[in-house]
RNA sequence: GUGAGUGUAGUUCAGCGGUUAGAGCACUGGAUUGUGGAUCCAGUUGUCGGGGGUUCAAAUCCCCUCACUCACCCCA
Protein backbone atom coordinates (compact mmCIF):
# COMPACT_ATOMS: atom_id res chain seq x y z
CA UNK A 1 0.00 0.00 0.00
CA UNK A 2 1.45 3.29 -1.02
CA UNK A 3 -0.16 5.77 1.32
CA UNK A 4 -1.80 5.58 4.69
CA UNK A 5 -3.78 8.16 6.57
CA UNK A 6 -1.90 10.27 9.10
CA UNK A 7 -1.65 8.77 12.60
CA UNK A 8 -4.70 9.50 14.68
CA UNK A 9 -6.88 10.39 11.68
CA UNK A 10 -9.68 8.22 10.42
CA UNK A 11 -11.69 7.77 7.26
CA UNK A 12 -15.42 7.76 7.73
CA UNK A 13 -17.21 5.62 5.17
CA UNK A 14 -20.78 4.55 4.60
CA UNK A 15 -22.77 3.31 6.39
CA UNK A 16 -21.12 5.19 9.26
CA UNK A 17 -21.55 8.48 7.41
CA UNK A 18 -25.33 7.93 7.61
CA UNK A 19 -25.06 8.03 11.39
CA UNK A 20 -22.97 11.19 11.25
CA UNK A 21 -25.53 12.92 9.08
CA UNK A 22 -28.32 11.81 11.34
CA UNK A 23 -26.49 13.11 14.40
CA UNK A 24 -25.58 16.42 12.79
CA UNK A 25 -29.01 17.16 11.45
CA UNK A 26 -30.75 16.13 14.67
CA UNK A 27 -28.44 18.40 16.66
CA UNK A 28 -28.97 21.33 14.32
CA UNK A 29 -32.73 20.80 14.55
CA UNK A 30 -32.79 20.71 18.35
CA UNK A 31 -30.43 23.67 18.72
CA UNK A 32 -32.59 25.71 16.42
CA UNK A 33 -35.60 25.29 18.70
CA UNK A 34 -33.51 26.81 21.49
CA UNK A 35 -32.56 29.80 19.34
CA UNK A 36 -29.05 28.77 18.35
CA UNK A 37 -27.76 29.67 14.89
CA UNK A 38 -24.84 28.16 13.07
CA UNK A 39 -21.44 29.78 13.06
CA UNK A 40 -18.51 28.58 10.97
CA UNK A 41 -15.01 29.56 11.97
CA UNK A 42 -11.61 28.58 10.53
CA UNK A 43 -9.93 25.35 11.61
CA UNK A 44 -6.76 27.28 12.37
CA UNK A 45 -6.01 30.32 14.44
CA UNK A 46 -3.09 32.36 15.56
CA UNK A 47 -1.54 30.24 18.32
CA UNK A 48 -2.17 32.90 20.98
CA UNK A 49 -5.92 32.47 20.62
CA UNK A 50 -5.53 29.14 22.38
CA UNK A 51 -2.56 29.67 24.67
CA UNK A 52 -4.14 32.69 26.30
CA UNK A 53 -7.64 31.27 26.71
CA UNK A 54 -7.15 27.60 27.52
CA UNK A 55 -4.27 28.28 29.90
CA UNK A 56 -0.53 28.20 29.35
CA UNK A 57 -0.01 25.31 31.70
CA UNK A 58 -2.92 23.15 30.62
CA UNK A 59 -2.03 19.87 28.94
CA UNK A 60 -3.73 20.94 25.76
CA UNK A 61 -1.41 23.89 25.36
CA UNK A 62 1.68 22.25 26.80
CA UNK A 63 1.76 19.09 24.76
CA UNK A 64 -1.29 18.56 22.60
CA UNK A 65 -1.40 21.41 20.11
CA UNK A 66 -0.83 21.03 16.41
CA UNK A 67 1.27 24.14 16.04
CA UNK A 68 3.44 25.11 13.11
CA UNK A 69 4.95 28.14 11.47
CA UNK A 70 3.50 29.18 8.14
CA UNK A 71 5.39 30.68 5.22
CA UNK A 72 4.86 34.14 6.60
CA UNK A 73 6.60 33.08 9.80
CA UNK A 74 3.39 33.23 11.84
CA UNK A 75 2.70 30.67 14.53
CA UNK A 76 -0.51 28.95 13.57
CA UNK A 77 -2.41 26.26 15.48
CA UNK A 78 -5.04 23.79 14.33
CA UNK A 79 -7.91 24.39 16.72
CA UNK A 80 -7.93 21.96 19.68
CA UNK A 81 -11.41 23.13 20.69
CA UNK A 82 -14.13 25.39 19.40
CA UNK A 83 -14.95 27.92 22.09
CA UNK A 84 -11.89 30.16 21.76
CA UNK A 85 -12.20 30.57 17.97
CA UNK A 86 -15.90 31.31 18.28
CA UNK A 87 -15.31 33.98 20.89
CA UNK A 88 -12.49 35.46 18.80
CA UNK A 89 -14.77 35.57 15.76
CA UNK A 90 -17.65 37.21 17.61
CA UNK A 91 -15.42 39.86 19.18
CA UNK A 92 -13.69 40.54 15.86
CA UNK A 93 -16.99 40.92 14.02
CA UNK A 94 -18.49 43.13 16.68
CA UNK A 95 -21.39 40.80 17.25
CA UNK A 96 -21.64 41.57 20.98
CA UNK A 97 -22.14 45.25 20.32
CA UNK A 98 -25.24 44.65 18.27
CA UNK A 99 -26.54 41.48 19.88
CA UNK A 100 -25.26 41.21 23.44
CA UNK A 101 -27.34 38.08 24.00
CA UNK A 102 -26.90 35.58 21.23
CA UNK A 103 -26.53 31.85 20.79
CA UNK A 104 -24.46 29.88 18.31
CA UNK A 105 -23.67 26.32 17.43
CA UNK A 106 -20.89 24.83 15.32
CA UNK A 107 -19.69 21.47 14.15
CA UNK A 108 -16.41 20.39 12.71
CA UNK A 109 -12.99 18.87 13.21
CA UNK A 110 -10.68 19.62 16.13
CA UNK A 111 -7.05 18.60 16.45
CA UNK A 112 -5.02 17.41 19.38
CA UNK A 113 -1.60 15.84 19.14
CA UNK A 114 -2.21 12.94 21.52
CA UNK A 115 -1.54 9.25 21.51
CA UNK A 116 -4.69 7.77 19.94
CA UNK A 117 -6.75 5.20 21.81
CA UNK A 118 -10.36 4.10 22.04
CA UNK A 119 -12.52 7.20 21.65
CA UNK A 120 -9.54 9.50 21.12
CA UNK A 121 -8.17 10.70 17.82
CA UNK A 122 -5.81 13.42 16.67
CA UNK A 123 -8.45 14.73 14.34
CA UNK A 124 -11.78 14.37 16.04
CA UNK A 125 -15.09 16.15 15.68
CA UNK A 126 -17.20 18.20 17.97
CA UNK A 127 -20.63 19.67 17.87
CA UNK A 128 -20.69 22.65 20.15
CA UNK A 129 -23.10 25.29 21.36
CA UNK A 130 -22.34 28.60 23.06
CA UNK A 131 -24.78 31.09 24.61
CA UNK A 132 -23.66 34.63 25.41
CA UNK A 133 -24.77 37.59 27.43
CA UNK A 134 -26.92 35.97 30.12
CA UNK A 135 -25.62 35.04 33.53
CA UNK A 136 -28.93 33.72 34.83
CA UNK A 137 -28.55 30.13 36.08
CA UNK A 138 -31.81 29.29 34.34
CA UNK A 139 -29.92 29.60 31.09
CA UNK A 140 -27.47 27.02 32.44
CA UNK A 141 -30.44 24.78 33.13
CA UNK A 142 -31.76 25.32 29.62
CA UNK A 143 -28.43 24.41 28.11
CA UNK A 144 -28.50 21.15 30.04
CA UNK A 145 -32.09 20.66 28.99
CA UNK A 146 -31.14 21.17 25.36
CA UNK A 147 -28.45 18.56 25.70
CA UNK A 148 -30.82 16.03 27.25
CA UNK A 149 -33.46 16.76 24.61
CA UNK A 150 -30.88 16.01 21.95
CA UNK A 151 -29.66 12.82 23.62
CA UNK A 152 -33.23 11.76 24.08
CA UNK A 153 -34.12 12.45 20.48
CA UNK A 154 -31.18 10.32 19.45
CA UNK A 155 -32.56 7.51 21.55
CA UNK A 156 -29.60 7.37 23.93
CA UNK A 157 -30.17 5.89 27.34
CA UNK A 158 -28.06 5.20 30.40
CA UNK A 159 -26.16 8.44 30.25
CA UNK A 160 -25.24 10.26 33.41
CA UNK A 161 -25.33 14.03 33.42
CA UNK A 162 -22.94 15.21 36.11
CA UNK A 163 -22.86 18.80 37.24
CA UNK A 164 -20.73 20.88 39.55
CA UNK A 165 -19.75 24.43 40.30
CA UNK A 166 -16.11 25.39 40.45
CA UNK A 167 -16.79 28.89 41.71
CA UNK A 168 -15.47 32.16 40.42
CA UNK A 169 -12.06 33.84 40.44
CA UNK A 170 -12.90 35.14 43.92
CA UNK A 171 -13.85 31.94 45.71
CA UNK A 172 -11.96 29.32 43.76
CA UNK A 173 -8.49 30.30 45.03
CA UNK A 174 -9.78 29.97 48.59
CA UNK A 175 -11.01 26.46 47.87
CA UNK A 176 -7.78 25.59 46.16
CA UNK A 177 -5.88 26.65 49.28
CA UNK A 178 -8.18 24.56 51.45
CA UNK A 179 -7.48 21.52 49.29
CA UNK A 180 -3.76 22.13 49.38
CA UNK A 181 -3.86 22.52 53.14
CA UNK A 182 -5.77 19.25 53.42
CA UNK A 183 -3.29 17.28 51.35
CA UNK A 184 -0.20 19.02 52.68
CA UNK A 185 0.01 16.66 55.63
CA UNK A 186 -0.87 13.58 53.53
CA UNK A 187 1.54 14.31 50.72
CA UNK A 188 3.79 11.32 51.40
CA UNK A 189 1.01 8.82 50.87
CA UNK A 190 -0.05 10.16 47.48
CA UNK A 191 1.00 8.58 44.20
CA UNK A 192 3.66 10.23 42.04
CA UNK A 193 1.06 11.73 39.70
CA UNK A 194 -0.82 13.27 42.60
CA UNK A 195 2.34 14.75 44.08
CA UNK A 196 2.76 16.50 40.77
CA UNK A 197 -0.91 17.46 40.72
CA UNK A 198 -0.51 18.92 44.20
CA UNK A 199 1.69 21.56 42.62
CA UNK A 200 0.04 22.00 39.24
CA UNK A 201 -3.64 21.28 39.76
CA UNK A 202 -4.53 20.05 43.26
CA UNK A 203 -8.23 19.73 42.38
CA UNK A 204 -7.29 16.83 40.10
CA UNK A 205 -6.24 14.74 43.10
CA UNK A 206 -9.94 14.30 43.69
CA UNK A 207 -10.40 12.01 40.72
CA UNK A 208 -7.22 9.96 40.91
CA UNK A 209 -7.91 6.24 40.63
CA UNK A 210 -5.01 4.97 42.74
CA UNK A 211 -6.55 3.24 45.80
CA UNK A 212 -4.17 4.91 48.27
CA UNK A 213 -5.16 8.34 46.99
CA UNK A 214 -8.83 7.44 47.09
CA UNK A 215 -8.46 6.57 50.78
CA UNK A 216 -6.39 9.60 51.63
CA UNK A 217 -8.90 12.02 50.27
CA UNK A 218 -11.71 10.89 52.57
CA UNK A 219 -12.95 13.99 54.32
CA UNK A 220 -11.34 16.36 51.85
CA UNK A 221 -13.05 19.71 51.44
CA UNK A 222 -15.80 20.01 48.82
CA UNK A 223 -16.00 22.94 46.39
CA UNK A 224 -19.65 23.30 47.10
CA UNK A 225 -18.89 24.24 50.71
CA UNK A 226 -16.43 26.90 49.65
CA UNK A 227 -18.49 28.81 47.11
CA UNK A 228 -19.14 32.43 47.93
CA UNK A 229 -22.76 33.52 48.40
CA UNK A 230 -23.34 34.54 44.77
CA UNK A 231 -21.85 31.34 43.33
CA UNK A 232 -23.72 29.19 45.84
CA UNK A 233 -26.99 30.88 44.94
CA UNK A 234 -26.28 30.41 41.25
CA UNK A 235 -25.72 26.70 41.74
CA UNK A 236 -28.82 26.36 43.95
CA UNK A 237 -31.04 27.98 41.32
CA UNK A 238 -29.48 25.75 38.68
CA UNK A 239 -30.29 22.53 40.52
CA UNK A 240 -33.77 23.77 41.43
CA UNK A 241 -34.50 24.67 37.82
CA UNK A 242 -33.20 21.35 36.54
CA UNK A 243 -35.48 19.57 38.99
CA UNK A 244 -38.36 21.75 37.86
CA UNK A 245 -37.68 20.93 34.20
CA UNK A 246 -37.32 17.26 34.96
CA UNK A 247 -33.75 17.07 33.73
CA UNK A 248 -32.02 14.16 35.45
CA UNK A 249 -28.59 14.98 36.90
CA UNK A 250 -26.15 14.04 39.59
CA UNK A 251 -24.06 16.53 41.51
CA UNK A 252 -20.40 15.58 41.36
CA UNK A 253 -18.32 17.93 43.50
CA UNK A 254 -15.08 16.45 42.17
CA UNK A 255 -15.83 17.32 38.56
CA UNK A 256 -13.00 19.54 37.36
CA UNK A 257 -12.58 20.79 33.84
CA UNK A 258 -9.29 20.96 32.04
CA UNK A 259 -9.62 24.40 30.56
CA UNK A 260 -8.70 27.51 32.53
CA UNK A 261 -11.55 29.67 31.38
CA UNK A 262 -14.38 27.92 33.17
CA UNK A 263 -16.27 29.62 36.01
CA UNK A 264 -19.14 28.39 38.15
CA UNK A 265 -21.19 25.74 36.37
CA UNK A 266 -19.35 22.80 34.83
CA UNK A 267 -20.87 19.59 33.56
CA UNK A 268 -20.14 16.39 31.77
CA UNK A 269 -22.28 13.67 30.23
CA UNK A 270 -20.69 10.25 30.61
CA UNK A 271 -21.56 6.89 29.10
CA UNK A 272 -20.61 3.81 31.05
CA UNK A 273 -20.25 1.67 27.95
CA UNK A 274 -17.45 3.60 26.29
CA UNK A 275 -14.24 2.46 27.96
CA UNK A 276 -11.70 4.85 29.38
CA UNK A 277 -12.72 7.87 27.31
CA UNK A 278 -16.30 7.97 28.42
CA UNK A 279 -17.29 11.64 28.29
CA UNK A 280 -19.59 12.24 25.32
CA UNK A 281 -20.24 15.89 26.05
CA UNK A 282 -18.84 18.42 28.44
CA UNK A 283 -18.96 22.11 29.05
CA UNK A 284 -19.47 24.89 31.46
CA UNK A 285 -19.79 28.58 32.08
CA UNK A 286 -17.03 30.97 31.10
CA UNK A 287 -18.00 34.41 32.25
CA UNK A 288 -14.63 36.13 31.80
CA UNK A 289 -13.48 34.83 28.44
CA UNK A 290 -15.13 37.40 26.19
CA UNK A 291 -13.49 40.21 28.13
CA UNK A 292 -10.14 38.49 27.89
CA UNK A 293 -10.56 38.54 24.14
CA UNK A 294 -11.13 42.27 24.24
CA UNK A 295 -14.91 42.14 23.99
CA UNK A 296 -17.46 43.73 26.29
CA UNK A 297 -18.17 42.15 29.67
CA UNK A 298 -20.22 39.17 28.50
CA UNK A 299 -21.06 36.09 30.54
CA UNK A 300 -21.30 32.87 28.57
CA UNK A 301 -21.89 29.16 28.76
CA UNK A 302 -21.42 26.34 26.31
CA UNK A 303 -20.58 22.75 25.71
CA UNK A 304 -19.04 20.45 23.15
CA UNK A 305 -20.13 17.02 22.19
CA UNK A 306 -17.69 14.41 20.94
CA UNK A 307 -19.02 13.18 17.62
CA UNK A 308 -16.93 9.99 17.38
CA UNK A 309 -17.98 8.96 20.89
CA UNK A 310 -21.58 9.74 20.13
CA UNK A 311 -21.46 7.79 16.88
CA UNK A 312 -20.09 4.73 18.65
CA UNK A 313 -23.04 4.92 21.04
CA UNK A 314 -25.41 5.32 18.11
CA UNK A 315 -23.88 2.44 16.15
CA UNK A 316 -26.40 -0.02 17.58
CA UNK A 317 -29.38 2.07 16.59
CA UNK A 318 -28.09 2.75 13.09
CA UNK A 319 -30.66 4.05 10.65
CA UNK A 320 -31.51 1.54 7.89
CA UNK A 321 -29.38 1.84 4.79
CA UNK A 322 -31.03 3.77 1.97
CA UNK A 323 -32.26 1.63 -0.95
CA UNK A 324 -32.87 2.41 -4.60
CA UNK A 325 -36.52 2.41 -5.67
CA UNK A 326 -35.75 0.89 -9.04
CA UNK A 327 -32.92 -1.02 -10.63
CA UNK A 328 -32.92 -1.19 -14.41
CA UNK A 329 -31.21 -4.23 -15.91
CA UNK A 330 -30.24 -3.73 -19.53
CA UNK A 331 -29.25 -6.27 -22.14
CA UNK A 332 -27.71 -4.78 -25.25
CA UNK A 333 -26.91 -1.28 -26.44
CA UNK A 334 -30.39 0.06 -27.25
CA UNK A 335 -31.69 -1.23 -23.92
CA UNK A 336 -28.83 0.37 -22.01
CA UNK A 337 -29.64 3.74 -23.54
CA UNK A 338 -33.31 3.33 -22.75
CA UNK A 339 -32.44 2.37 -19.18
CA UNK A 340 -30.33 5.49 -18.82
CA UNK A 341 -33.13 7.79 -19.87
CA UNK A 342 -35.66 6.18 -17.55
CA UNK A 343 -33.21 6.41 -14.67
CA UNK A 344 -32.43 9.99 -15.46
CA UNK A 345 -36.12 10.95 -15.48
CA UNK A 346 -36.53 9.37 -12.04
CA UNK A 347 -33.47 11.07 -10.60
CA UNK A 348 -34.71 14.45 -11.81
CA UNK A 349 -37.78 13.96 -9.69
CA UNK A 350 -35.74 12.89 -6.68
CA UNK A 351 -36.06 9.13 -6.92
CA UNK A 352 -33.02 6.88 -6.56
CA UNK A 353 -32.66 4.67 -9.63
CA UNK A 354 -29.73 2.46 -10.61
CA UNK A 355 -28.69 1.06 -13.98
CA UNK A 356 -27.09 -2.28 -14.73
CA UNK A 357 -25.43 -1.07 -17.98
CA UNK A 358 -24.13 -4.44 -19.18
CA UNK A 359 -23.14 -7.95 -18.19
CA UNK A 360 -25.25 -11.03 -17.81
CA UNK A 361 -28.76 -10.60 -16.49
CA UNK A 362 -27.77 -12.80 -13.62
CA UNK A 363 -24.97 -10.52 -12.53
CA UNK A 364 -27.19 -7.47 -12.91
CA UNK A 365 -29.88 -9.10 -10.80
CA UNK A 366 -27.29 -9.88 -8.20
CA UNK A 367 -26.29 -6.26 -8.08
CA UNK A 368 -29.91 -5.17 -7.83
CA UNK A 369 -30.31 -7.50 -4.89
CA UNK A 370 -27.14 -6.33 -3.22
CA UNK A 371 -28.25 -2.73 -3.49
CA UNK A 372 -31.58 -3.68 -1.95
CA UNK A 373 -33.59 -2.38 -4.91
CA UNK A 374 -37.32 -2.75 -4.37
CA UNK A 375 -38.08 -3.27 -8.04
CA UNK A 376 -36.11 -4.28 -11.09
CA UNK A 377 -37.07 -3.40 -14.65
CA UNK A 378 -35.66 -5.78 -17.24
CA UNK A 379 -35.05 -4.36 -20.68
CA UNK A 380 -33.66 -6.23 -23.71
CA UNK A 381 -33.87 -5.83 -27.47
CA UNK A 382 -37.38 -7.30 -27.57
CA UNK A 383 -38.61 -4.90 -24.91
CA UNK A 384 -37.17 -1.91 -26.69
CA UNK A 385 -38.96 -3.06 -29.84
CA UNK A 386 -42.30 -3.80 -28.20
CA UNK A 387 -42.20 -0.95 -25.69
CA UNK A 388 -43.13 -3.29 -22.82
CA UNK A 389 -40.87 -4.83 -20.19
CA UNK A 390 -40.99 -6.99 -17.08
CA UNK A 391 -41.12 -5.15 -13.79
CA UNK A 392 -40.08 -7.45 -10.97
CA UNK A 393 -40.95 -6.89 -7.34
CA UNK A 394 -37.78 -8.04 -5.62
CA UNK A 395 -39.48 -8.96 -2.38
CA UNK A 396 -42.47 -10.92 -3.70
CA UNK A 397 -40.83 -12.02 -6.98
CA UNK A 398 -44.01 -11.03 -8.80
CA UNK A 399 -43.52 -9.70 -12.30
CA UNK A 400 -45.79 -7.66 -14.47
CA UNK A 401 -45.60 -6.28 -17.95
CA UNK A 402 -45.32 -2.52 -17.98
CA UNK A 403 -45.01 0.03 -20.76
CA UNK A 404 -41.57 1.60 -20.87
CA UNK A 405 -43.13 5.03 -21.14
CA UNK A 406 -45.07 4.66 -17.89
CA UNK A 407 -42.35 2.85 -15.99
CA UNK A 408 -40.74 6.01 -14.70
CA UNK A 409 -44.03 7.63 -13.68
CA UNK A 410 -44.85 4.62 -11.56
CA UNK A 411 -42.05 5.52 -9.14
CA UNK A 412 -42.56 9.24 -8.96
CA UNK A 413 -44.50 9.92 -5.79
C1' G B 1 5.29 11.61 26.77
C1' U B 2 4.94 6.37 29.58
C1' G B 3 3.51 1.07 29.64
C1' A B 4 1.55 -3.45 27.48
C1' G B 5 -0.31 -6.25 23.29
C1' U B 6 -0.83 -7.04 17.96
C1' G B 7 0.85 -6.64 12.53
C1' U B 8 -0.22 -12.95 7.30
C1' A B 9 -5.44 -12.13 0.88
C1' G B 10 -10.39 -6.76 0.24
C1' U B 11 -11.89 -8.50 5.44
C1' U B 12 -11.79 -11.89 9.94
C1' C B 13 -8.13 -15.08 11.26
C1' A B 14 -5.11 -20.06 11.19
C1' G B 15 0.02 -21.46 10.42
C1' C B 16 4.83 -20.17 15.24
C1' G B 17 12.09 -23.16 12.27
C1' G B 18 11.46 -27.60 7.32
C1' U B 19 8.54 -28.52 0.09
C1' U B 20 5.09 -24.29 -3.95
C1' A B 21 1.68 -19.93 2.88
C1' G B 22 -3.97 -21.65 4.20
C1' A B 23 -9.46 -21.26 5.70
C1' G B 24 -14.22 -18.60 6.40
C1' C B 25 -16.56 -14.27 4.53
C1' A B 26 -16.37 -11.17 0.22
C1' C B 27 -15.57 -11.06 -5.11
C1' U B 28 -15.94 -13.47 -10.33
C1' G B 29 -17.88 -17.44 -13.28
C1' G B 30 -20.84 -21.89 -13.73
C1' A B 31 -24.94 -25.56 -12.33
C1' U B 32 -29.93 -22.10 -14.40
C1' U B 33 -27.60 -19.80 -23.13
C1' G B 34 -32.67 -13.34 -20.27
C1' U B 35 -34.18 -13.54 -13.70
C1' G B 36 -31.37 -11.94 -7.28
C1' G B 37 -31.03 -13.82 -2.04
C1' A B 38 -30.32 -20.53 -0.28
C1' U B 39 -27.18 -24.77 -1.95
C1' C B 40 -23.23 -27.04 -4.77
C1' C B 41 -18.82 -26.63 -8.05
C1' A B 42 -14.72 -23.84 -9.94
C1' G B 43 -11.60 -19.53 -10.00
C1' U B 44 -8.97 -14.73 -8.56
C1' U B 45 -6.49 -12.11 -4.65
C1' G B 46 -0.55 -11.90 -0.84
C1' U B 47 6.47 -7.47 -1.23
C1' C B 48 3.52 -12.89 5.76
C1' G B 49 4.15 -4.16 7.95
C1' G B 50 9.49 -2.43 6.60
C1' G B 51 14.89 -3.02 7.42
C1' G B 52 18.87 -5.76 9.43
C1' G B 53 20.71 -10.25 11.85
C1' U B 54 20.99 -15.75 13.45
C1' U B 55 20.47 -20.41 10.52
C1' C B 56 21.71 -25.34 5.59
C1' A B 57 16.63 -23.29 5.93
C1' A B 58 12.75 -17.57 8.78
C1' A B 59 5.79 -15.77 8.16
C1' U B 60 7.94 -18.55 12.41
C1' C B 61 13.88 -16.91 16.51
C1' C B 62 16.73 -11.99 17.78
C1' C B 63 17.43 -6.54 17.14
C1' C B 64 15.77 -1.89 15.10
C1' U B 65 11.87 0.75 12.89
C1' C B 66 6.93 1.96 11.44
C1' A B 67 1.78 1.25 12.07
C1' C B 68 -2.44 -0.36 14.77
C1' U B 69 -4.90 -1.55 19.53
C1' C B 70 -5.63 -0.88 24.72
C1' A B 71 -4.36 1.61 29.18
C1' C B 72 -1.84 5.83 31.88
C1' C B 73 -1.15 11.29 31.77
C1' C B 74 -5.00 14.19 29.98
C1' C B 75 -9.44 14.77 27.52
C1' A B 76 -14.63 15.29 23.41
Produce the secondary structure layout:
Blueprint: H1 16-33, E1 37-38, E2 44-46, H2 47-54, H3 59-63, E3 66-69, E4 75-78, H4 83-92, H5 95-98, E5 102-111, E6 123-132, H6 137-153, E7 159-165, H7 172-184, H8 192-200, H9 211-216, H10 223-226, H11 229-245, E8 250-251, E9 263-271, E10 279-285, H12 289-292, E11 300-306, H13 307-314, E12 326-330, H14 333-348, E13 353-355, H15 361-371, E14 375-379, H16 381-386, E15 388-393, E16 399-403, H17 404-410
Parallel strand pairs: 1-5, 7-8, 12-13, 12-14
Antiparallel strand pairs: 2-4, 3-4, 5-6, 6-11, 7-9, 9-10, 10-11, 14-15, 15-16
Helix pairs in contact: 1-6, 1-13, 6-11, 14-17
The chain binds one RNA strand of 76 nucleotides through helix 3, strand 6, strand 10, strand 11 and helix 13.
Q: Which CATH C-level class of the largest domain is it?
A: Alpha Beta
Report the end-to-end length measured between terminal Cα atoms.
Answer: 46 Å
Biggest sheet, strands in spatial order? Answer: 1-5-6-11-10-9-7-8
Largest sheet features: 8 strands, mixed
Would you count the extended β strands for me?
A: 16
Question: Class by helix and strand content?
Answer: alpha+beta
Mean pLDDT: 90
CATH architecture of the largest domain: 2-Layer Sandwich
Q: What value does the Rg take, in angstroms?
A: 28 Å
Beta-strand percentage?
15-25%
Number of helices: 17
